[in-house]
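Kindly review this record before class:
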Amino acid sequence: MTPPPDIGLDAAQVGDVFPFHFAFDRDLQVLAVGRSLGRMLPGFRVGQALADTLLLYRPSLPLEPGRIPSLHGQPVIFRTVASKDWLRGQLLPLADGSGWIFLGSPWFTQPSDLQRNGLEVGDFAAHDTVADVLQILQAQQMAFDDMKAIMQKLSQQRAESRRLSARLSALIGNLRGGVLVEDPERRILIVNQAFCTLFGIPADPVELVGLDCSNSAEQSKHLFAEPEAFVTGIRLALENRRTLTGEILTLRSGHILERDYVPIFSEGSYQGHLWHYRDITDRITAERALRLETSRLSVTLANIVDGVITTDSAGAITLLNTAALRILGASESELLGFPLAEVFRLRRSNTSADGDPVAQVLGSGVAWETGSSRNEWRWLDTLDGRQLRVVASIAPIRGSVDNAGLILVFRDVSKEFEVEELKRDFVSAVSHELRTPITSMKGFLDTVLGDPEMPVEVRTEFLGVVRSQLKRLAGMVEKILQFSRLEAGQKMELAAFDLTALAGEIVAELTPISGSRSVAIDWDGPNIPVEILADREQIRSVLVNLLTNAIKFTPDGGSVGIGVREDGGETVVAVRDTGIGIRAEDLPNLFQRFYRAPSSGQHAPGTGLGLSIVKEIVQRHGGQIHVDSRPGEGSTFTVRLPTRPSA
């Protein structure tokens, strides 16, 4: 038996007087359970942890050994874990100091609680009626103490609320924007000076607290450029009670306001709302100016023929203009954010790299540029696989920090490079071709002039050679002039004419030349009229060039053929020969300017302009030219022209 507390009762008497008692040791392990409590809580057994069955409900403290001594002599309430019933009584120490004992009884409020817990009136001790009175008094004291604590907490909360309200009022008062807080009846709770200033209200904000704002929209609408829209906006906001932000309003004065509406709810109950007005005139003006400047910059960049790229301080691309995208062969989405050094790589030649000028400028802050002479131009490998010649400059962008980024300006000079190459080839070819007839003529003329006694027949022969060379020289000069006119964009003079008749005239003119070398000119196909709308002189040049070349590269005894026919909406001219033919590797370059395909191991005579002139004229007429050829078997040049060009 557990030693009873020192209350003048032995252990058996304690069990009779307090049938709902229980005892537990310092580790909160159950030592004893009264007979009636055992019936009420069948699972409450000696040896188990007290906290498995009971919780300390009043005072509301954790059930810990160190807190038990502070509860001696106080009324306490335990709550059962399973059934949520209460036990009320007191805790006293055991006589030997090994633990504590609870002396009390259940706290029932309904007769049905007895039956639910399997108890009878006999399970209670006779003293319980008196104990109830004592417990009621003690419970009242506990309730009073709880109420006192609640009142103290409410007082603290009110004080904190007043402090928060003061801070909120100070905060709203110092806001640059106008703030108005209204209760559900639209009476003013808080208003700041900025609101009064914004709407020209000649009163102290404190004086406005409590005023009814129900008709304020009608009273203020005259200030706005769209007064009815202002009134309607307020009405809809109050009806819908949904947060609205960034609503733009324009005053008659020209000022622009931004308005927010915020409904205030507390635990689902509508408590009022807040209006916030901000004068954003300066911001809108600045944004408009910035958009205008950005638009101007965009238009300027879009129309600059040079590529322009900017980067951030780390060298990542932030902006590209249209020319840069075209030159690099990529889209904006493919390049924005990528390192410029990976996109723009320059080479001095096909074999040597140019270092990394982007990293050089980022590191040193010193601008870099290519030279202005053609020898200083760099090679650029584009993203779509092309190789271009470019000139470029890279400079740091100075900002509030040492390096705010880079700006790259570059230009595709491939055309200029090609033109210079063509000029060089042109000068070389023309110089060589002109030198030959001039040298020949000079030699024959010097011979004739230096020998007055030269026989007439010899003199005539020499002068004939000079005449032939002059004719050749005139032909070269004419081709150069024709090339120049085409390059200058000579306007076509369109007229309707019979292409078959024109071809016949040219055949008649060239027959003496071909006949001298036993080269026959034949008609291929029916010799019928074919009318075409074109520039007659330019088409004549096409036929002369093609037939002259065919005769030139056809050995003695061979033949040249020409045919003209209609094919749907096109006119087809075919010039064939049984000449030396053209190698397959030379065909792609055949129509390039100044290109002369090798003939029998040597370059063919001429300026290399004839076929390029032919292609240029054909394309200007909206047509196409094609060649089929095999070495030793001859060639066929086919020209297809629209019978009636669209332009």
Remarks:
- The chain has four domains: 11-128, 175-284, 304-412, 491-647.
- The chain has a mean pLDDT of 81.
- The first strand starts at residue 22 and ends at 25.
